[in-house]
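Structure record:
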Amino acid sequence: MSIWKRKSIDLLLAEAADSEKGLKRTLTAWTLVALGIGAIIGAGLFVRTAAAAANSAGPSVTIGFIVAAIGCALAGLCYAELSSSIPIAGSAYTYTYATMGEFLAWIIGWDLILEYAVGAATVGIAWSEYLNNLLVNVFHTSPIPFEWCHSPFQTSADGVSGIINLPALFIVGALSLLLIKGTQESAFVNGIIVVLKVAIVLLIIVLGWQFINPTNHAEYIPQPSIYTDKQGLDHNFGGIMGILGAAGTVFFAFIGFDAVSTAAQETKNPKKDMPIGILGSLAVCTVLYILFAHVLTGVATVEDFRGEGGEASVAYAINKYMVGYEWLGQFVTVAILAGFSSVILVMLLGQSRVFYSMGKDGLLPKVFSEVHPKYKTPYKANMIIFVIVGLFAAFVPGDIVGDMTSIGTLFAFILVCISVIVLRKTNPDMKREFKTPLVPLVPVLGVLVCLAMVYGLGWPNWLRLIAWMLIGVVIYFGYSKKNSKLNNGGE
């Protein structure tokens, strides 16, 4: 039994052919770009932009977006090669299993919980914040009491301590039930949500430009200092470290582009369309993000983001500074809630696919791969995921889980970049629909940029990642290694 035993490419391709025979090649480059934009624009832009400006970079959060986009583009080229070569569920977990062996595959599968499950919790917390905004500013009713919509680690300005974030727990539970039943949003509804999201961003950019206060951009890159947030955590604010910290924070806003890579088997011409879909959606979103961040930090002050604005800073900035456009703040709140719901659904779905693959491989208990007799969904996996996500959403502050998602995804991207280099050495003759250019330069640069963002996220997040990985290592040697089908003749 070797912890470095790899799953053969032939076996993976056989599984792909066996389990996904019904897929047809119908997607074009432009439908992939639309899919990417729909997956990318979500809580990251509307929530993490303000958090990065408040804690790390001020107006230079725009430069942080550029750094994050470069890292995503380099990783995206690697995803394009692997997704066209190994078109099967499991994403980075599957790629790592084929290139670097079972132990690292387990590590990346465990790490993907930070991207999908903790990511869903982050968006759930943001959903809760915007629900209160909807109740107060659209329906003109009282907000949910502070103690019932915040974690026990948060305290209001009036000294009220949170108990549990019930709205976040509710939305995660409701969407988990939808997934168990197998209800999926139609392409039409998904398309409407995409149009809504992009329309919001464009409206804020176009209408907000005239409300930019030059004073707010006077010191575009603030002088280096230390900012201590409400939780007592220190952040490098300003200078190059502030920009890197902001890049690591707003990196959350780009999570979702890797969803494009999973559609390789349904793409008409993966060799041409996959890089256009991945890089095209990244390019469009990067331009929108930079303009959006420039307007937001110009309209409102850093103190607004640190104070009353909180996680609903976009609507707060519109209502406070864009006089005459209060309707836009209301429109933003309603549409963002719909958009957040779709993002949570996709993240919960992604987590269930990874757990399903790991359950089939024996690295997790069989219960994770059990399919409902009527609905044909991994319903027990979805129930367990609801418990995990629900605990994070109900009891952990949004800033902490957001940064955990960023650092977990960056780690996944690093292993995907390394996988391309390894697979070129171990399987040089494998058919590749798309080849990452300038290997090993592009993957190495991808690793370095992602590592720079990990560095910028600071030592508290490194410790959380290390602690999370150590828990994963204990579970692997205590359970997964003994039950692995690949290591026990089950494959």
